[in-house]
């Protein structure tokens, strides 16, 4: 064929090289992913890089300011809190809590929501009705109030917060996966797979899921970010992670009495939270651009 | 010739509900079709949009169970056979090559997918079979590692044909395989299908609304109107001596290459009737130029004369042809 020789004459860069160029050419993805990588690395290496024990109190060195203030010293680069605990060490350990919560809530709610959405979108009919009803029921319950009530009954702990948020936040996964699956379902390649004799699980995992993956990534990052914020809010209200565990939300809560005297006690964990959310969202957005099939050359 | 696939009085109904509180209504997409697909033939199915061609294709593919009637293969009902047996019997080529290939799989994986599903051969054997069929449909081997979006429409349709043929099915059902392609590519694909049919001894069911294409490729043609086959005859006979007024109108609608002639007048007048509310008697009668007394009350019966089937009162010896002619357009 003449057209094939014409194609072959143009030297194509290898698939790997093209992918690399796409990833590194995407500035916000590079920025978000690097920031996220730094935070994850810090969380993983917490015991190695934290200068102090995050629980060690030193009442002689209470509410010391960070190093960029005149009274600040390099002994405590981010100062100390109202019990004299090193703020940098607590920030480093706090990253662990936020990431664990964000990731586990995303996995639990993602599994529930994606399963429901896939089944509803693929089978339609009664299955769709049941799932839609469950989503509507779930949407009728305000997350923060239900979470508060359950945590108030069961008592706050990391595990309880993860489970409560995980079992509450699947709605967006279900809604997005349902409509994405409906679209893919109507494509002829699904019919072709059926005609080839493929089993329903094979079609769901091999044909449908890879084609709704881009949307799944976006929802997953959004939900992880929102779970981290919800944990911070719950901890701030005193019903999330319990002291002395160093959660960023809890640190903001503990610092609110000192807001007018030691402003950095709120500003530092607040900034860290904002940066983490920004990093996750940028990385998720970029990832969607990379994996979307229409974006492929 | 023997029949490979037989449809006996096959109907497919859809429940349609417009708005939550309205009553459900029944749509007969396919209404009582008798069809015997002969081994080795190319059966063309033509008709307007909405006449049930694609629904019939899905039924023949086993993708949609018929509401009534049976589709039989070798005396056994298609719904009784397991999905592997059906897949080995009949494979599809769809209209839109942009939606019929999974955009996230490489071409080799798409073509080899049926082999994977059926677990035929070892990995190396499967790769050999895939490259053999790809070569056969005219796809260069370096396309194997490409993704569908790197291919043109015609190339994609070749991939779809390769996927349909890799299992060596007895029948390939092509649902308007060329209507999404450029005219120049259409003829390539049609000739490819004809070659493959000869070489691989496969029976083709070729659905189209393009009579020129069907005349070129089919050995027998079925004309569908509102869910029924109104005329079925060998191609040359149908085109030389059309019996049903609808077929005649369709044939007169074929565009000629002569520029000054304009768009041909078919005499069909009115728009296509609402399939939710089909006309009484003969379903074609509101648009028929030659309708007469029994047409709006009595449904015509299939009349068979030496392999030429028509459903029209005009040719029924039991109907009195001297009944008064009615106005063509009320």
TrEMBL record, chain A:
Q: Where does the UniProt entry say this protein principally localizes?
A: membrane
Membrane disposition: Multi-pass membrane protein
GO aspect biological process, one term: transmembrane transport
- Similarity comment: Belongs to the binding-protein-dependent transport system permease family.
Q: Does the keyword Transmembrane helix apply?
A: yes
Q: Which domain of life is it from?
A: Bacteria
Q: Does the keyword Transmembrane apply?
A: yes
Residue intervals of the ABC transmembrane type-1 domain: 95-284
What name does this protein carry?
ABC transporter permease
* Chain segments annotated as transmembrane: 28-50, 91-112, 119-137, 143-168, 257-280
CDD domains, alphabetically? TM_PBP2
Instruction: Supply the alphabetized keyword list.
Output: Cell membrane, Membrane, Transmembrane, Transmembrane helix, Transport
- Entry GO CC: plasma membrane
Where does this protein reside within or beyond the cell?
Answer: Cell membrane
Automatic annotation (TrEMBL), chain B:
UniProt keywords (A-Z) are: ATP-binding, Nucleotide-binding, Transport
Family listed: Belongs to the ABC transporter superfamily.
Mind telling me what this protein is named? ATP-binding cassette domain-containing protein
Q: Which PANTHER family match?
A: D,D-DIPEPTIDE TRANSPORT ATP-BINDING PROTEIN DDPF-RELATED, TRANSPORT ATP-BINDING PROTEIN
GO cellular component assignments: plasma membrane
Q: Which InterPro entries match?
A: AAA+_ATPase, ABC_transp_ATP-bind, ABC_transporter-like_ATP-bd, ABC_transporter-like_CS, Oligopep_ABC_C, P-loop_NTPase
Where found? Answer: Cell inner membrane
Originating species: Fulvimarina endophytica
- Listed transmembrane segments: none
The biological process GO terms on file are: peptide transport; transmembrane transport
**Which PROSITE patterns does the record cross-reference, listed alphabetically?**
ABC_TRANSPORTER_1, ABC_TRANSPORTER_2
> GO molecular-function annotation terms?
ATP binding; ATP hydrolysis activity
Protein's membrane topology: Peripheral membrane protein
Can you give the residue ranges of the ABC transporter domain? 5-251
């Amino acid at each position: 064929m003449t057209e094939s020789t014409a194609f072959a004459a143009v030297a194509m860069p290898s698939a790997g090289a093209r992918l690399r160029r796409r990833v590194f050419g995407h500035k916000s993805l590079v920025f978000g992913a690097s920031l996220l990588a730094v935070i994850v690395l810090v969380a993983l290496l917490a015991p190695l890089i934290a200068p102090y024990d995050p629980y060690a109190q030193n009442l002689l060195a209470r509410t010391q300011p960070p190093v960029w203030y005149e009274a600040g010293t390099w002994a405590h680069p981010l100062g100390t809190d109202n019990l004299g605990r090193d703020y940098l060490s607590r920030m480093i350990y706090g990253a662990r809590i936020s990431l664990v919560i964000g990731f586990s809530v995303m996995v639990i709610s993602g599994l529930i929501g994606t399963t429901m959405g896939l089944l509803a979108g693929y089978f339609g009919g009664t299955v769709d009705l049941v799932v839609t009803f469950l989503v509507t029921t779930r949407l009728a319950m305000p997350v923060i109030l239900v979470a508060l009530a359950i945590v108030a009954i069961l008592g706050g702990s990391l595990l309880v917060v993860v489970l409560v948020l995980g079992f509450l936040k699947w709605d967006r996964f279900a809604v997005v996966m349902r409509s994405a699956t409906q679209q893919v379902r109507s494509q002829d390649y699904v019919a072709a797979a059926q005609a080839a004799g493929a089993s329903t699980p094979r079609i769901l995992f091999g044909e449908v899921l890879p084609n709704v993956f881009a949307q799944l990534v976006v929802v997953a990052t959004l939900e992880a970010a929102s779970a981290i914020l919800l944990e911070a809010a719950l901890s701030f209200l005193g019903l999330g992670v319990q002291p002395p565990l160093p959660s960023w939300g809890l640190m903001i809560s503990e610092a609110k009495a000192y807001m007018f005297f030691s402003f950095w006690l709120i500003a530092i964990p607040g900034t860290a939270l904002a940066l983490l959310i920004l990093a996750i969202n940028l990385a998720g957005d970029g990832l969607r651009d990379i994996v979307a099939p229409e974006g492929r050359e | 010739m023997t029949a490979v696939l037989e449809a006996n009085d096959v109907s497919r109904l859809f429940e349609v509900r417009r708005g939550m509180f309205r009553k459900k209504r029944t749509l007969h997409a396919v209404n009582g079709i008798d069809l015997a697909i002969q081994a080795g033939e190319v059966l063309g199915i033509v008709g307007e949009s909405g006449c049930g061609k694609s629904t019939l294709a899905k039924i023949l593919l086993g993708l949609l169970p018929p509401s009534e009637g049976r589709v039989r293969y070798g005396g056994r009902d298609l719904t009784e056979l397991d999905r592997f047996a059906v897949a080995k019997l009949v494979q599809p080529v769809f209209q839109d090559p942009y939606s019929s290939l999974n955009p996230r799989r490489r071409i080799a994986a798409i073509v080899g997918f049926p082999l994977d599903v059926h677990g035929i051969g070892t990995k190396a054997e499967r790769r050999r079979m895939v490259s053999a069929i790809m070569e056969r449909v005219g796809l260069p081997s370096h396309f194997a590692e490409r993704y569908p979006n790197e291919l043109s429409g015609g190339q994609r349709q070749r991939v779809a044909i390769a996927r349909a043929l890799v299992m060596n099915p007895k029948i390939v059902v092509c649902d308007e395989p060329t209507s999404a392609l450029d005219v120049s590519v259409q003829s390539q694909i049609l000739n490819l299908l004809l070659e493959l049919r000869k070489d691989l001894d496969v029976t083709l069911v070729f659905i189209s609304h393009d009579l020129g294409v069907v005349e070129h490729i089919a050995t027998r043609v079925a004309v569908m109107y509102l869910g029924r086959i109104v005329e079925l005859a060998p191609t040359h006979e149908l085109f030389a001596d059309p019996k049903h007024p609808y077929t005649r109108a369709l044939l007169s609608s074929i565009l000629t290459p002569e520029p000054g002639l304009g768009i041909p007048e078919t005499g069909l007048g009115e728009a296509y009737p609402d399939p939710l509310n089909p006309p009484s008697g003969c379903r074609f009668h509101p648009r028929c130029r030659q309708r007469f007394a029994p047409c709006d009350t009595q449904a015509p019966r299939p009349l068979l004369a030496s392999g030429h089937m028509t459903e029209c009162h005009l040719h029924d010896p039991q109907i009195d042809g001297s009944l008064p002619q009615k106005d063509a357009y009320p």
